[in-house]
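Hello,

I think I submitted the iron/sulfur cluster job twice by accident. Can you confirm which output corresponds to this input? Input:
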Amino acid sequence: MAAKTLTIDGKMVGAHEDQTILEAARDAGIKIPTLCHLEGLSDLGACRLCLVEVKGSNRLQPACAIKVAEGMEVQTHSERLQKYRRMILELLFAERNHVCAVCVSNGHCELQNLAIELGMDHVRFDYRFSGFDVDITHNRYGLDHNRCILCTRCVRVCNEVEGAHTWDVAGRGADARVITDLKQPWGEADSCTACGKCVMACPTGALFYKGSTVAEMERDRTRLEFIVTAREKKQWIV
Amino acid sequence: MDESCGKCIPCRAGTVQMHHLLTKILDGKATLKDLQKLEELCDMVKNTSLCGLGQTAPNPVLSTLRFFRHEYLELLRPESAPAPVKSATTPEVSTHA
Amino acid sequence: MAQRIEIDPVTRIEGHAKITIQLDDSGNVTDAHFHVTEFRGFERFCEGRPLWEMAGITARICGICPVSHLLASAKAGDAILAVDIPPAADQLRRLMNLGQIVQSHALSFFHLSAPDFLLGMDSPPATRNVFGLMASDPDLARAGIRLRQFGQEIIECLGGKKIHPAWAVPGGVRSALPEACRQKIKSKLPEARATTLTALSLFKKLIKQFKAEAQIFGNFPSLFMGLVGPDGSWEHYGGNLRFVDSGGNVIADQIPAARYREYIGEASEAQSYLKSPYYRPLGYPEGIYRVGPLARLNICSQIGTPLADLELSHFRECGNGSVTSSFFYHYARLIEILAAVEKIEAMIDNPELGSEWLRADAGINKLEGVGVSEAPRGTLLHHYQVDANGMVQKVNLIIATGQNNLAMNRTVAQIARHYVHGSKIQEGMLNRVEAGIRAFDPCLSCSTHAYGKMPLAIALIGPRGELVDTASTPV
Ligand code: SF4
Ligand code: SF4
Ligand code: SF4
Ligand code: FES
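Support: Only one job matched these inputs. Its output is below.
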């Protein structure tokens, strides 16, 4: 496996050729904000939070999806990038109904954490007040579209890790929604094995264990990591 | 914005907000601040969207802003806009690529 | 309705509690209305949310008594899950509610009302507040502040944060009382008890000076309602509803919360967004009843702790049957602090409080549930209807201030009769009306606005709906 050398934020970094910029940066202790990326799942570059500047390219590049290259010069936290990131978060908050104070994920939410981290302290765009349905027909889990950011982690984890492929995205643009099976209530989706992986993967309060009360929804990501490591590396590290 | 597939956020949610801000301007309810917001938003959507659709969606707005800025200004709420120069026709703007 | 339009200039003053007073042709007060803020939006807001979020959502209704909403909501949830919550959860919820009673009553008495008593109703508003009290009686003021902190600490120990702790859940509670907190609460109990006793003896000395106020501050017959235990003793969390009349006779007893509709009707008045509940068998508005500290002491047979029971016997002497003057809400509040402190003393060493058995796990087993708790200001009812998945379909809330609405109007009218002559609002009226309303400790944001000062705007309305006079407190 060939090694590559690149600079990230002025720091010389060594990486394997099949690593992404995001992985190389993480190994070097540089944290790039992400939302749609989840360790162990395929990447699709949808949330655009991980965009970085690569010298010589006039387009911004998603760090989660771009492989490292020899001599690459990467900027991860320029003024402009941070401004775009904040604005993306603002768009997400305005798009649906995020009332953190009464949300099951309050205090344990990746979207909320990012907003705090990036200093997005207010939303300048008008809220769209989505008022979508909440689906709690499943006997163990619930889905609140009003908090979904369409990162499709649930879609990917269910398909790639569990192999059930219960989730999909239906509709386009602002009408896009995650659906279970053929858009029937989750409780009637026969393909679901009730494994809970989608709930573990969801970054926000959109998917939750039924019965969770405000701020109670803490996700145990280590279990997901355990499954992924076991599957890919045949190592069962508890 | 009806053309956006909805996969990436800037295009999915950004075009909705662009449309909203443009409508607000056309309705005469916008302020100079909204105009600045619109410009920032267009810049962001253009530079961060995943595919060509989102990357070009703001172009009509950006070019009309460049060449017919005065028409936008005239439509702003009286208290926030500079004194109108002359009455103008409504600018034909679209959020579609 | 034409009258409402006339008072618009007054009602528009922001942050003021609004009062309109109706006069007849000869200039006598016929009616008074205390206008309070919209409440129903919240009920709609809850529809379409999962049952389990309700406790957290409704705790946001009121920044002043979130704990009470939390408990009523959790109890409505218990009913829908159809579970008996673990005994430890019951004890812990009680502990939190006692903490809430202490902190809220301490705020009402020491911060908001004591300045009126100790500095005089007509002392200048600039100093008639907790700071003025601090200057004239620093020990009392400081002890009062600490007493409130004591109550807040109990809530914080259990719920994690002072305001809006989403800690009680359908089926039980989320966490037990940490040992360190138990020690802390225990160590502060003696001071809490001492402060309460000092305030009580002070208040009793002052009662004589306020004979006139006691006569006119909402002194009228009405029913009283609240929770009582199975033996009729004072309750704040469990038990069933009881109604008592002004003669002290029990007219309805041991009514389970689930049957509240048979006894409580809800009238809407054009002048106010607040629903006015009434005792259904007597109709509206004859079925006027009061809730809160005064009511709880009027309806109970005993409190069940030695010092508070002793005080209760003195309290009873202030009335004939029931104590009917709203002025004695203050007295009742102090006795309730004492009761709460004694009850905390009695339970604080119970090992149950550290139990790990805190939450009953169950799905939806009933489509409807009513939860009731005693908020510091009075009985609070949460009534939910859900679908088979636990999605909330309909919500009805009956709040303490709503139930006291009719009584507050009557209190204002009674005070106005003494201070309105002809078409002029007399000196001293604003202060008296303010104090009269404050006796009920209504849970409106304006009632705790600033320390000791309730912004009020009063409009006198003539027989043909014309605005006769206005007065408002400077902001
Ligand atoms: S999902 Fe996250 S950001 Fe959205 S309301 Fe819940 S806590 Fe807030
Ligand atoms: S619980 Fe498992 S099988 Fe069901 S939708 Fe989620 S990931 Fe897929
Ligand atoms: S439900 Fe959660 S995991 Fe699925 S797309 Fe929405 S936010 Fe992402
Ligand atoms: S994490 Fe890279 S685009 Fe979402």
